[in-house]
Design goal:
240 residues; four-stranded mixed sheet; Glutathione S-transferase Yfyf (Class Pi), Chain A, domain 2; Glutathione-S-Trfase_C_sf; Glutathione S-transferase; Thioredoxin-like_sf; 2 domains; Glutathione-S-Trfase_C-like
Length: 240
């Protein structure tokens, strides 16, 4: 169905990595929508009435509310024509399997590397955390080189929902690892495919338009020592 025929509201927090996934999908597909920023530290009553768990991201489409970042992106890519198709022809199941694997292992490895839980620690991680993150980075490179036929994206020459699922966390880990551990994420991929993927993603207009100011974000991270500090105090992408 054409985008002009649908009435979509996107409920988000502009610093949440899960909501970031859906923001990227909406931007890549140029889907018209109304955006509502939710203060997660002080959720409005009307939002809890609309979405009982009060989580982001969520969309309201023609009166029906849907949640969960990955499911929202699958839905949006199927329902809206948009400017691009983000699921490779004949490879939907392969893509979803890839996303599911990263949704657990890469996210968890990165959180442990930078501090454990959603907090940060200063200094080098332990050997176990470092080895686990190195394995994940090497796995990304193998996927790009084999499944993606050399990339630059995870599944080939075009960006897909797999890239959009992984990027919000890679972007945050890259900045946090540099700040708190003195490590460059791109250098953890020995073949260079990870570095090329980061460069390809960083150059996309959707990524550029949604990135907060690094210095402002780092100031908040240093003060709170938490990746998810915005759950506990008012913040947004313009004033992180």
């Amino acid at each position: 169905m054409a985008t002009a025929d649908r009435n979509l509201t996107f409920y988000t927090h502009s610093l949440c990595p899960y909501a970031h996934r859906v923001s990227l999908c909406l931007a890549e597909k140029a889907i018209p929508h109304k955006r509502e920023h939710i203060d997660l530290s002080n959720k409005p009553r009307w939002y809890l009435d609309l979405n009982r768990r009060g989580l982001v991201p969520a969309i309201q489409l023609d009166g029906e509310v849907k949640t969960e970042s990955l499911e929202l992106n699958y839905f949006l890519d199927d329902v809206f024509e948009g400017a691009a198709r983000l699921t490779p022809d004949g490879r939907k199941e392969e893509m979803q399997t890839l996303i599911d694997s990263f949704d657990g292992s890469f996210i968890s490895a990165g959180l442990q590397f930078v501090g454990g839980g959603w907090g940060f620690r200063r200094g080098a991680p332990g050997p176990r955390q470092a080895d686990r993150m190195a394995v994940e980075c090497e796995r990304i490179e193998r996927i790009i080189e084999i499944n993606g036929n050399g990339g630059p994206y995870l599944m080939g020459a075009e960006v897909t929902l797999a890239d959009l699922a992984l990027w919000p966390f890679a972007e945050r880990y890259e900045l946090a690892m540099r700040e708190f551990q003195g490590v460059e994420l791109r250098e953890m991929g020995p073949s260079g495919s990870l570095s090329r993927w980061i460069d390809a993603m960083r150059s996309r207009p959707s990524v550029v338009g949604l990135r907060p100011d690094d210095n402002k974000l780092l100031a908040s991270w240093r003060r709170t020592m938490r990746l998810d500090y915005f759950d506990y105090e008012t913040a947004d992408v313009d004033n992180p």
